[in-house]
Automatic annotation (TrEMBL):
Taxon lineage: Bacteria, Pseudomonadati, Pseudomonadota, Betaproteobacteria, Burkholderiales
Catalytic EC class: oxidoreductase
Protein family per UniProt: Belongs to the Dps family.
Origin superkingdom: Bacteria
Protein name: Non-specific DNA-binding protein Dps / Iron-binding ferritin-like antioxidant protein / Ferroxidase
UniProt keyword annotation of Oxidoreductase present: yes
GO molecular function: DNA binding; ferric iron binding; ferroxidase activity
Keywords from the UniProt entry: DNA-binding, Oxidoreductase
Ferritin/DPS domain location: 82-220
InterPro entries: DPS_DNA-bd, DPS_DNA-bd_CS, Ferritin-like, Ferritin-like_SF, Ferritin_DPS_dom
EC number assigned by the record: 1.16.3.1
């Protein structure tokens, strides 16, 4: 029997076999069993001493919501959001008025006004989402009820169905009202160094001033 086999029998644990087969080769010509055994013992001892890496606990995830930190103070964000809420209320009121007039316009200018109002209310409708979501990005809730819009809007809604030219006059005033509200909001955004809001309001100013010009031209 080979010396290594004898040593193998002597230490027959699975751990021992693994260590011997992978790391230490015992010379089969070794005549001194004690020497081979000592080598094996040493290997086993080393294997036993080898400890599994210490388990480290994963750091606990932070469950809290991070505070908004975009370089605009809390009070400035609140002030800009309040102005945007007024802009949203005016914009929604103007949108609804324009759509209302699209439905109810009558007279010789029907085709012209019906189509023109549709172009305007479609653009205004799409802009509402941008305004509301900018308020959300600033950390505040966007107004979304008729009650809030009635409180916040500077635009008086008609109580009857105006004739076609009166609709146009009301829409001139409505577009100019949104422009004034957006311009006041722009001043707050500019003072707060809030470029995205200033950019959005600049676009709204451009649209409503252009609408007012086109509508006014129908009356001249
Ligand atoms: Fe329509």
């Amino acid at each position: 029997m080979q010396i290594a086999d004898r040593a193998h029998q002597y230490y027959s644990s699975a751990c021992f076999v693994a260590v011997v087969s992978s790391t230490d080769r015992i010379d089969p010509q070794e005549k001194n069993v004690a020497k081979a055994t000592k080598s094996v013992k040493s290997a086993v001892k080393g294997a036993v001493k080898t400890k599994a890496p210490a388990k480290t606990k994963a750091p606990k995830s932070d469950q809290s919501v991070p505070h908004i930190d975009i370089g605009i103070t809390d009070s400035a964000r609140a002030a800009v959001a309040a102005e945007l809420s007024k802009t949203l209320a005016d914009s929604y009121t103007l949108y609804l008025m324009t759509h209302n007039f699209h439905w109810n316009v009558t007279g010789p200018l029907f085709n012209t006004l019906h189509a023109m109002f549709m172009t305007q209310y479609t653009e205004e409708w799409n802009a509402l989402d941008d305004i509301a979501e900018r308020i959300r990005a600033l950390g505040h809730y966007a107004p979304g009820t008729y009650r809030e819009y009635a409180q916040l809007s500077s635009i008086a809604e008609p109580t009857n169905i105006p004739d076609a030219l009166e609709m146009v006059r009301l829409l001139v005033k409505g577009n100019e009202a949104v422009a004034k509200t957006a311009r006041a909001a722009f001043e707050k955004a500019d003072a707060a160094n809030d470029q995205p809001t200033a950019d959005l309001l600049t676009q709204r100013l451009d649209v409503h001033e252009k609408n007012a010009w086109m509508l006014r031209s129908l009356l001249q």
